[in-house]
Amino acid sequence: MMLQAFLKERRSWILFFLGLQLLILFVAYLDTTIPMASLFYIVLLSTFFMIVFLFFRYRKETAYYERLKEWDDHIDHQMRLTPSSPFEQLVHDATSEQIARYRLMAAEQQIALEEEKDELLSWIHEVKTPLTAMHLMIDRLTEQPLKSNMTYEWLRIHLLLDAQLHQSRIRHIENDLFIEQLDLQSIIAKEIKALQSWCMQKGIGFEITLEERHVLSDTKWLSFMIRQVLTNAVKYSHSSDIAIESKKMDDQVMLTITDQGRGIDPRDIPRIFEKGFTSTRHHNDTASTGMGLYLTKKGADALHIKIEVNSTIDQGTTFTFIFPKKNDFVHIASM
Question: Does the first or last residue of the chain, that is N or C, have fewer Cβ atoms within 10 Å of its Cβ?
Fold first, then answer.
């Protein structure tokens, strides 16, 4: 509270004043020639004026600090405060100098981050060229076991680069969205085709039942989210089918992807979308980065898609994407 801070700051002055008044009364008490009633009246009057003086000084001296307290301390905002005393001017100058220094540091760091991001994106796109050439060479292989193994390793590199590319875009995802009507059938078919060789190697099939095929969303990010869930489903399943279904409930499209893999520990479910989290049950799973589902959740939040997860250990996992209603995209389109 500002009043309490003001009285604490002026405590020594107040105690000094009260001490003087007590000294005057003590002198009058010792010297009987001095009329006690008159001095007591003077002390009382002085105390009254002291209280009035403190009231006006409180209003004047705390006005600057009240504004300073309410000021938005974000470094991008100017400090529009007018000091009215030498000490306030000292505080104002020191604070303004610090803000200018931090603003300069923030600008330099922002430039460095943007340069690093551009270099990373350039590197990813450069790596994609030899990766595409490698895929063409793998397609020419005739030895099936070698071809399957090479395709699997190629796919791992491709998915890691894809995740890194989306991670670099996540900070400005609002600028990366283009909302349009999409066909779930074509998106899912494309993602399954990319995982085809891996699925054949593991004996995994797909059961697709799409009652509702069209949704409003962003092609790039929706494809990425479905890709991450399908990749995890294939990765943690063996010789079983993955069920993909869509339906409409309460004017909302629901897309479910169900596998029969190893499942997720119930205590891990609240944390699977955290950055860098892998598993508390499978510590030997060094291939996981913990970024796929984190980026999936970030993309879903930007697209107003709700994700629900149900899982049973050693029986499988179901991811449900609940797409927003059409009216909800008025907000997204205006961002």
Answer: N
